[in-house]
Amino acid sequence: MLKRIFATTLAVVFLMSTVACTSLVEENPDEVTTAGEVTEATTAAAEATTEATTVTTEATTVTTEEPEPDIRTVTLLCAGDNLIHSSIYNQAHRRAKANGDEDGYDFDYVYASIESYLEDVDIAILNQETIVTDELEPSDYPNFCSPGDLGRKMVSLGFNVMSIGNNHVLDRGETGLLATLNFWKEQDEVICYGAYESEEDMNNIRTMEVDGITFAFLGYTEHTNGLYLPSNTECWVIRVTDANMDLIEEQVRYADSIADVVVVSVHYGTEVSNELSTLQKTFTPKLVEWGADLIIGTQAHTVETMEYIDKPDGGQAFVFYGLGNLVSAMADPLAMVGILGKFEVTKNMDTGEVTIENVRAIPIITQYGYNYSNIHIEPYVTYTDDLLSAHGCSGFTQDTIDKVLSYIPEEYLSIE
C-alpha cells in the first residue's frame, strides 16, 4: 500500500515538472538558440573575417607598386652663321627711319619667319659671326661690325647662348673684341663664349642649368683670317692648332666633370663646301673622346652632314658638322641654304643617364631680290616657285637646294 502511494506521488511530481518546463519554453521562445543556429552564426562570422582579410591583402598590394622614373627633357635649337653684311644693316636702318627712329636699326623683317621655331625652346644657340656693339660704327666685309640693335633683336627672338669664337671675332681688333664682350655681358640671362677678356675669364666655363640638367659651353675656331691679338693682351681666342690641343682637352674634360651635357662650338671646315675637311674628320672624334656630348659646326656657310658618334662611356654624342648660314648677303648659291638644328636632351634623374633624341634638321633659305634687296629668311616648308624665280642670287635653282639637302641624312631632315 505504501509502495503504490509512493509511485503515484512520483508520477504526479514528474508530470508537474514536465508541465513547468513546457511552460517555460512557450513563455520565452526568442531566448532559445538551437545548435543549428549557432553553426550558421559562426559560419557567417568566419566569412566576414575572411572578406576583411581579403580586402586588407588587396590594399597592401596597391601600395607596393614601383614609382614612375623621374625623366627630364630640355629642348634645344642651334643656328648657323648670322653674317650681317652692310646690305642687311642698311636695310634695317631704312626700316627704322621709316618708323620714326632716325638712329636705330629694325631687323624684324629679316627674322620674322623663324620666330615660331624658337617659341618652345629652352636653350637657343647662335653663332654670331660678326661682332656686335653700340660703341663702334657698323662695318662690312672684310672687317665686320654690327649695330647693337642686331644683338638685341637676337635676344628678343629667344637666342640665349651666343658663340662668338669664329674667324671674324678679331675683325675690329682687341678694341672690337672687348666692345662685343661688354655688349653681351649687358644682356640679361645670355651666355657668351668662344672669346674671353682674360685667362681667368677663359677658365670660367660657362654653364646653364635647366630643369635639373646642367649644360657647359666651349668654343674654338680654326683661324681668325690672319688677324691676331697684340702680344701684351689679356684677351683669349682659342684656335684649333696642335699647340692648343692640350688646353682644349683640359677644358673639355673639366667641363665634362661639372656638367651633364658638354656643348662644343667649333668654327671649322672648308668655306662653301658640303664635304668635310680633314680637320673636321680628325678633331671631332677627339672632342667626343674627351667628353663632348654635342658638337656644333659652323664656317662652311652651307650645310654639311650630321651623325651620332659613340662615346667611351657607352653613350652617344651628336655632331652637326655644318649648319650653314642663318642669314647673309653672300653671292654663292650653296650659301643660300642653311638649317636650324632642333632636338631634345633627356636625363633620367634616378640613373643619371643623358641622351640626345629627336634630332631634326629644318631647312631655311636666305632670300633676297635684285641687288640684295629685301633680305630675309624663308623656311623651306613655305618656299614657293615664285620666290625661287625672284631670287637675286644668280644660279640659285631647285637643283641647288636639292644638292645641299642631299647631305642631310634622311632620318634627320625635317621639312616643317
Characteristics:
alpha/beta; globular; 16 strands; 11 helices
Word description of this protein:
This protein is an alpha/beta fold and 416 residues long. The protein has 11 helices and 16 strands. Strands 1, 2, 5, 6, 13, 14, 15 and 16 form an 8-stranded mixed β-sheet that branches.
In short:
The chain is of the alpha/beta class and 416 residues long. Helix content is 33%, strand content 23%.
Largest sheet: 8 strands, mixed
Residue fraction in strands:
15-25%
Oligomer state equals single chain
Low-confidence stretches: 1-59
Listing every helix as H and every strand as E from the N terminus to the C terminus, the arrangement reads HHEHHEEEHEHEHEEHEHEEEEEEEHH
Tertiary shape: globular
Explain the layout of strands and helices.
Elements: H1 2-27, H2 35-62, E1 71-82, H3 86-98, H4 108-111, E2 123-127, E3 132-133, E4 146-147, H5 148-157, E5 161-163, H6 173-185, E6 191-193, H7 199-203, E7 206-210, E8 213-221, H8 245-258, E9 261-267, H9 278-290, E10 294-298, E11 306-310, E12 316-320, E13 325-327, E14 337-348, E15 354-367, E16 376-379, H10 385-389, H11 398-405
